[in-house]
Design brief:
The protein is mostly helical. The chain is 45% helix and 9% strand. It is an enzyme of class 3 (hydrolase).
C-alpha cells in the first residue's frame, strides 16, 4: 500500500493497492528496495548482504495477494520479473516468493483443497518460475475456516499438507517449506494447538525421512517473556507452554538426525568417487 501511495503522490494514476503489481513506477520503487537490501554491507563484517553466507534465502514478499485478478496472471508476471531482477544482482542465495500455497485457476483440479476464497496466486505455476528455488506454504485453518469445527479443520489441514508435499515432490521437483502455521489460543485450547503442531510436524517428518520434498516448518510465532503488547494469540512462550516447547524440540532433534544421516551419505559418495569405485 505504501508503494502505491508514494506513486500516487508523484502523480501516477493508481486507484487500487493491486496496482503495486503492474504500475511501472511502483515496480521501479520495489526494485530499488531489492537493490538497496542486497547491496547493503554488514556494518560489522563489511560483507554485502548478497555475499553474506549466514543468509539462507530471500523472500520476495510476505503473502502476495491480488484479488482483482483471480486468473493469477498479474502475480505470475510480477514474480517472474522480480525473481529475475533479484537473481541478476544476487545469484548466491536461494529465493522464494512468500506464497501461502493457494491453488489458482491454472490448477483447477486442485482448487478443492483451498479454503473457500481466491487470492490471485497459484502454488504450482508461481513456484515453477525460473529463479524460485523452493516453495512455501502457510497453514491457518482457524482463520481460513472460522465457522468449521475442529474435526473439519483437521481434515482440511491434512489434505492441505499432503497435497502440497506431493505437488512439490512430483510436479515442482523442489523443496517445500511450511513457512507459517499456527492456531490461536484465543479461540482454542493449548491442547488443540499442540495437536495442530503434531499434525504439521508429522507430515514434514514423514516426507523428510524418506528423502521427500518437505524441508521444514516454522510456526507463528516464538515470543519471550515481556512481549505482552505483541501477543496475538499465536505466540509460543516456552516457559508458559512447556508441552508445545517439547513438541518443537522433539521435531528439531528428529530433523537434525535426518540432516546428519544425509550428510554422511554424501560424504560416503564423495569418498567412493575419490577411490574410483
Amino acid at each position: 500500500k505504501q508503494y502505491v501511495n508514494w506513486a500516487r503522490s508523484e502523480g501516477q494514476s493508481v486507484s487500487s493497492d493491486d496496482d503495486f503489481f503492474t504500475n511501472s513506477v511502483v515496480k521501479s520503487y520495489y526494485k530499488n528496495h531489492i537493490k538497496t537490501v542486497l547491496t547493503r554491507r554488514n556494518t560489522i563484517t563489511g560483507v554485502a548482504y548478497k555475499d553474506e553466507p549466514t543468509i539462507m534465502a530471500w523472500e520476495l514478499m510476505n503473502e502476495p495477494r491480488c484479488t482483482s485478478d483471480p486468473s493469477g496472471r498479474t502475480i505470475q508476471a510480477w514474480i517472474t520479473e522480480m525473481a529475475a531482477y533479484l537473481k541478476s544482482i544476487d545469484s548466491n542465495h536461494l529465493l522464494e516468493a512468500g506464497l501461502e500455497g493457494f491453488y489458482g485457476q491454472g490448477s483447477s483440479q486442485k482448487q478443492q483443497y483451498n479454503p473457500n476464497f481466491q487470492i490471485g496466486t497459484d502454488f504450482i505455476a508461481n513456484n515453477q518460475i525460473p529463479g524460485i528455488d523452493f516453495a512455501t506454504v502457510h497453514s491457518y485453518p482457524d482463520q481460513w475456516l472460522p465457522s468449521s469445527d475442529s474435526e473439519s479443520q483437521e481434515s482440511f489441514l491434512n489434505n492441505w499438507l499432503n497435497n502440497h508435499i506431493q505437488d512439490a515432490q512430483n510436479i515442482l521437483r523442489k523443496p517445500v517449506l511450511f513457512a507459517e502455521f499456527g492456531k490461536s489460543s484465543k479461540t482454542s485450547s493449548y491442547n488443540q494447538r499442540d495437536q495442530l503442531f503434531n499434525t504439521v510436524y508429522s507430515a514434514i517428518y514423514s516426507s523428510a525421512s524418506g528423502g521427500g520434498a518437505a524441508a521444514g516448518g516454522m510456526f507463528w510465532q516464538l515470543f519471550t517473556e515481556g512481549m505482552d503488547s505483541f501477543r496475538d494469540g499465536y505466540e509460543v512462550v516456552f516457559s508458559e507452554n512447556p508441552s508445545t516447547a517439547g513438541i518443537i524440540v522433539d521435531q528439531s532433534q528428529k530433523l537434525n538426525k535426518i540432516r546428519k544421516m544425509y550428510a554422511r551419505l554424501r560424504n560416503i559418495e564423495k569418498w567412493n568417487k575419490a577411490r574410483g569405485d
